[in-house]
Sequence to fold (226 residues):
Amino acid sequence: DSGVTQTPKHLITATGQRVTLRCSPRSGDLSVYWYQQSLDQGLQFLIQYYNGEERAKGNILERFSAQQFPDLHSELNLSSLELGDSALYFCASSVGRGGGNNSPLHFGNGTRLTVT
Amino acid sequence: GEDVEQSLFLSVREGDSSVINCTYTDSSSTYLYWYKQEPGAGLQLLTYIFSNMDMKQDQRLTVLLNKKDKHLSLRIADTQTGDSAIYFCAEKNQGGKLIFGQGTELSVKP
Fold:
């Protein structure tokens, strides 16, 4: 058990809808990362938050947004969903803010999103 | 640009050694990681190596790093059926971003 909790485990929704994925990081970790895993794109970094502030942005679509709350949990909001958004969405956390230090990422078990 | 490449599949017999290879392009990588993903689960950190090291051993796992060729490998000794999973190599660049390879699916046959 990595200590990173993601809910829900599975989500099925229709095109055009909006969903919210939730992540609780490991105790003591200040950084939260969101990744998307799909068969054709592999693991794609979406966004990172450190202690409530956006730290780094990856291949995140404008229809997607995220935030990290004062209690350090994070939510990823996906709107105007398309069939191609179907994927596994992982949250990971680390102690540090990133950078050159060794602050490995610990992953949750993911939320499987199916858009029909 | 930043890119991490792995072969997609590897099949071995139980008891043999497995070697999973990875190449990367970013010479400023600070740390390199190996993660394991079992079906329906998240990525589990297996081991890591700092970029100024060339080898790290951790029980059945041996990581070799050839920084000149930007080549990383993970050797699993005495491979068991429970080792069947997808193995991801990842590099951390100076900015702290973690770039993953596409994963190598290891199949262990009894």
Residues 61 and 76 of chain B are 5 Å apart (CA to CA). Chain B has a mean pLDDT of 92. The longest strand of chain B covers residues 43-50.
